[in-house]
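>> Question from a student workshop board

For tomorrow's exercise we were told to take the sequence and the ligand below, predict the bound structure, and bring the output to class. My setup keeps failing. Could a helper post the expected result so I can at least see what it should look like? The ligand is flavin-adenine dinucleotide.
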Amino acid sequence: MLAPMQMNVQPIPNVSERINEIRQLTAQIVNREILPNEAMLWRSRSGEPLSPADLDDVREVRAHIKETVKQAGLWAPHLPEEYGGAGLDFLELAYMNEILAYAMANTLFGVVAPNSGNQKILVKYGTDAQKEKWLMPLIEGRMESGFSMTEPDQPGSDPRSLKTTARRDGDEWVINGHKWFTSNGLRADFFIVMCRTDDPDGPADRNGKMTQMIVPTDTPGVNIVRGINVWGRNSDHCEIVYDDVRVPVDNQLGRTGTGHQAAQDRLGAGRVYHCMNSIGQMWRAFDLMVERTMVREVHGGLQETKQFIQGFIAESYMDIQAARLMTINCAEKMAADMDARTDISSIKVFVPAAYERVVDRAIQVWGAAGVTGDLPLAAMYQGARTLRLADGPDEVHKILIAKNVLSRYHSGEGWDFGA
Ligand SMILES: Cc1cc2nc3c(=O)[nH]c(=O)nc-3n(C[C@H](O)[C@H](O)[C@H](O)COP(=O)(O)OP(=O)(O)OC[C@H]3O[C@@H](n4cnc5c(N)ncnc54)[C@H](O)[C@@H]3O)c2cc1C
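>> Workshop helper replied:
Here is what the output should look like for this input. Compare the format with yours to find the bug.
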């Protein structure tokens, strides 16, 4: 049932040659290797039981695609070359994301959350010994990981409220706390756990008391309570109780008190990448929708001739253009080291909402087929809705936008939309 349409990626004027080259190379892999095999790859992701022969086919196709990605120099685009990555800069990676997300192909390019975020934290904050012990096995696929920050009893939207503690006892940290939504929790070999550390020499503000700890999942006291049921399905987003968990002080990531900053590092650029991913998926939903309107006859005419449906196409076009241009503008400001905090919050609110609207219309056009596992739309819809609360819920970002705007006006200036 999946449409055979290819992603139409042409060179963009006004960006570097390298960005265009990366986009073309990525699109070639998406169009030649991934989309023609998508039905098979999707079946394996949907949890549908597959015969051993089918599973072998899926493994073979995945291995072949990964090899092609490596040969094109695009493997692990988020990592520096010295760690086996493609060494892309921030803008190159942002522009690449919309293309690989079109086919929801991140894992085939070596970008697997939450491992990829943890890899970046380890690259930046890890000691040589931590890199050897945790980062390299993670990159080489010999280990899995999770990021354990959110707690059921405190608002995740205000990370300063976290209650999980790490208490120093000689050469060890002793961790106690209750977390949930630690993604990849069932497969992880270690978690990076956000803890409140009471270091008397550390800075006094509440953010300054947070430190991230590497906790191997087989450490006594790490109790994985359950994989939480999400959107009606079992998941590997785990609830975990840390009960007097002892780790060596060497497992501390960065200096004591830098945990909040490390989490921010993870989120800032990450929000641009997430938004470019959402745009790639909107683009796909749009292609699926428009293509369907050209062949589906309803009430004596093709859908494309009906004005309601033309409205869906026009509104979706505007949503994608607005979301994409806002995100690129934000990325360019960040790349130029300008203050992009208001733009980051704006895209974090606007893009998931636009994504949800576009996918919603595509589902409507496809009718019942739209909510089946035969198309990627249902998964996209759930993903879009989830994005409105993960990584900072809408309301928190709207408050930040308004604060930044108001402080400018209070200081006697207006907002410069040209800057
Ligand atoms: C699928 C999925 C995967 C996740 N993966 C991870 C992971 O790997 N690791 C991890 O640590 N966490 C993870 N999370 C957790 C996620 O980061 C949190 O859910 C998010 O930060 C929101 O926190 P909360 O759920 O505690 O909501 P709360 O903080 O309780 O917020 C609930 C609602 O309160 C409202 N609200 C909050 N603040 C304000 C305000 N100031 N003014 C007005 N209204 C407000 C908003 O409407 C908000 O949606 C994941 C979540 C999901 C759904």
